Backbone:
């Protein structure tokens, strides 16, 4: 197949996607307008202005969306890598640090929230996991894709696009910028621009099926990923030709095979493969609210009248005078009769309240938002929120699945590009700065220390213990110092935290109901801790930190799980021995006092008995 054949196929794929998803995109645009408060058409605003009514909109959709957005932010979970064999525990911890480092550097929390907003409103959130050049080398990079610049195989029926034959992103660029960025594709760019000479558009985002804006000198480029022979391929093209020729995707998966860097998910997919979000179900109730309130206001401000022909008054004159608070017209009693329309106004208000109640039940309800709880206790509010959160289960599950796919892609980019020794800082706390190294060469001396169970961080503590008289610590220090004199001790015999050799599983904590359950468990443990027996307190402290909102709780729990240093263990033994001796001393003194008291009591009884005999 020639390049022209490939170009024809890819252009047809993009145009088929754009054509087949127009209905769903129109719906997504309408959902976005309703969220932004643009809910009245031009004809409706004109009609309201003729009535003298302000075009007021009571936006019930935006608070619902914001509640779900807040829930997503409250339930954020950091990724964690678990080893697939016992020997990789340290490497798995390092992998966890690396993924979190990349996510922080890419502001992933903000981009995840933006993708979540697209899930709620437009129905699809998309993320691009690529790479970027930094001062330290090539690092993974996470980009959030605008929903209207992401296109896909319209025959895809899975919510996560795993069955899609192709995915891509489209961008409009100035012709000058595009020629500078892709000098090899200059001919294709110019041909596309010239081909749009008859087009007449001034939009920043030209309409469907246009590839260039001739007057503004802008061209449309597609970054396209598609399966070809079971392998993901990549190209950048415009209608006039390729600016980056077809080639296997430069991004590799965990098996070293080319993969698509675009990760997307949809909240709902209908039988026609149209994708939509939570806002779709709120459109009709929102229209009902707007129409009913407007109609009720119009009925309240107008009157129906019956005018006798004998008055000689025109209907327009009577209507005009009745509309004025100080209106006056001449006539006999009964010539003009005002007809009551209270039942019509009440009917519209009842339907308005029903529509508002329906939209309140849709998506994030008031219970989940912590509103409308009256004088309930904290426990009752938490249980009510937990029940309300079942409405958000689909949304939170989609965010979790999208996040997992992003974390795995980030780790794949790390394995692909971090080949040299690399250090990263994994904490922003200046008083507790911690660095993690990757691909660190391990010398024979370091390997020997590891076999003895001694890490570099533990060595100063062992030396202090040796100086304090610990014979075991002194033997370890003496053996390491002796081997350090051997020239072979500095030979490199391995690699620590080798990225290419680390095999891990990346997971996230489940937790649709995490905020309420976690808060409840924290409260229960906090109440148990003060009166708990000493042997249970370490376990309770650990549970307390696990259920807390403390940012660095993982570090605290990890420190709690580590065995005490040799000198600390020795001090604990001394303290325990001292406490034991003090207890034994107290018990001995108590027994001695009790014996003395018994002897005194026996002597008194004997004296009394002797006195009785003498008498």
Residues:
């Amino acid at each position: 197949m020639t390049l022209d054949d490939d170009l024809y196929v890819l252009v047809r794929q993009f145009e088929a996607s754009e054509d087949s998803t127009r209905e769903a995109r129109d719906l997504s645009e309408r959902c976005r307008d309703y969220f932004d408060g643009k809910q009245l058409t031009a004809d409706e605003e004109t009609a309201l202005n003729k009535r003298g009514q302000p075009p007021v909109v009571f936006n019930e959709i935006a608070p619902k969306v914001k509640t779900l957005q807040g829930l997503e932010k409250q339930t954020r979970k950091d990724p964690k890598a678990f080893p697939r064999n016992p020997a990789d525990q340290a490497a798995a911890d390092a992998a966890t640090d690396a993924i979190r480092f990349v996510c922080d550097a890419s502001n992933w929390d903000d981009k995840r929230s933006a993708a979540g907003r697209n899930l709620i409103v437009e129905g699809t959130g998309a993320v691009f996991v690529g790479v970027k050049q930094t001062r330290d080398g090539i690092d993974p990079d996470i980009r959030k894709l605008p929903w209207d610049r992401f296109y896909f195989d319209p025959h895809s029926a899975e919510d996560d696009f795993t069955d899609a034959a192709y995915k891509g992103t489209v961008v409009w660029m100035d012709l000058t910028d595009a020629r500078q960025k892709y000098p090899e594709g200059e001919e294709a760019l110019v041909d596309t621009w010239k081909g749009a000479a008859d087009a007449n558009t001034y939009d920043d985002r030209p309409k469907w099926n246009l590839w260039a804006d001739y007057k503004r000198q802008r061209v449309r480029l597609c970054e396209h990923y598609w399966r070809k022979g079971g392998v993901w391929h990549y190209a950048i093209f415009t209608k006039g030709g390729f600016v980056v020729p077809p080639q296997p995707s430069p991004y590799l998966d965990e098996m070293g095979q080319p993969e698509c860097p675009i990760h997307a998910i949809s909240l709902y997919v209908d039988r026609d493969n149209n994708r939509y979000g939570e806002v779709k179900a709120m459109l009709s109730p929102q229209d009902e609210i707007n129409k009913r309130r407007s109609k009720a206001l119009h009925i309240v401000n107008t009157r129906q009248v019956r005018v006798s022909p004998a008055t000689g008054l025109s209907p327009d004159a009577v209507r005009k005078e009745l509309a004025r608070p100080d209106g006056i017209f001449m006539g006999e009693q009964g010539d003009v009769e005002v007809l009551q329309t209270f039942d019509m106004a009440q009917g519209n208000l009842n339907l308005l309240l029903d529509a508002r109640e329906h939209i309140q039940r849709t998506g994030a309800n008031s219970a989940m938002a912590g509103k409308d709880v009256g004088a309930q206790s904290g426990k009752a509010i938490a249980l009510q929120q937990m029940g309300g959160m079942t409405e958000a289960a689909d949304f939170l599950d989609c965010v979790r699945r999208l996040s997992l796919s992003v974390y795995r892609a980030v780790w794949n980019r790390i394995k692909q590009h971090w080949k040299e020794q690399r250090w990263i800082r994994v904490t922003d706390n200046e008083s507790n700065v911690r660095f993690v190294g990757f691909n660190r060469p391990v010398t024979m001396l370091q390997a020997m220390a590891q076999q003895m169970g001694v890490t570099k961080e533990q060595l100063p503590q062992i030396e202090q213990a040796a100086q304090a008289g610990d014979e075991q610590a002194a033997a370890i220090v003496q053996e390491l110092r002796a081997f350090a004199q051997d020239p072979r001790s500095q030979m490199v015999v391995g690699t620590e935290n080798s990225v290419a050799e680390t095999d891990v599983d990346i997971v996230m904590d489940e937790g649709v109901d995490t905020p309420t359950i976690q808060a409840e468990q924290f409260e229960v443990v906090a109440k148990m801790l003060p009166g708990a027996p000493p042997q249970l307190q370490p376990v309770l402290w650990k549970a307390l930190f696990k259920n807390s909102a403390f940012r660095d709780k993982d570090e605290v729990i990890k420190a709690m799980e580590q065995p005490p240093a040799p000198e600390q263990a020795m001090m604990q033994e001394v303290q325990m021995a001292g406490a034991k001796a003090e207890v034994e001393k107290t018990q001995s003194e108590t027994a001695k006092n009790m014996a003395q008291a018994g002897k005194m009591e026996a002597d008194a009884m004997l004296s009394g008995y002797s006195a009785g005999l003498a008498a």
Q: What stands out?
A: The radius of gyration is 38 Å. Residues 199-206, 510-516, 608-615 have pLDDT under 50 and may be disordered. Residues 3-276 form one domain.
